[in-house]
Amino acid sequence: METAALFTIGHLRGVKTASILNNVVAYEQDTSESIGSYVDGENLAMEGEHHEILTALEAFYKLETWK
Question: Does residue 24 contact residue 38 with C-beta atoms inside 8 Å?
Fold first, then answer.
């Protein structure tokens, strides 16, 4: 839902928009069971966020230097 709002406002204002999803549950697994079974779930989420930040920074850099 948040991504849809970002893309809509970005389009209306003529701003390039992107979204990165941190998925901590494997495809077709039950969300509550999967998250509940993580012994180290908080650290896994933080590791995913760290990778998201690096991905976003790399994308920004490539966009700026691509010209």
Answer: yes
pLDDT digits (tens, 9 = 90+) for 11-65: 999 998 988 887 767 677 776 666 666 666 677 778 888 888 999 999 989 988 9
pTM score of the predicted model: 0.57
Q: How far apart are CA 41 and CA 45, in angstroms?
A: 6
Nearest to 18 by CA among 28, 31, 9, 30: 9
DSSP letter assigned to residue 61:
H
**7 contacts 19 by C-beta, under 8 angstroms:** yes
Burial call 16-39: b when 16+ CB within 10 Å, e when fewer: eeeeeeeeeeeeeeeeeeeeeeee
Structure-block tokens of residue 45: 């989420």
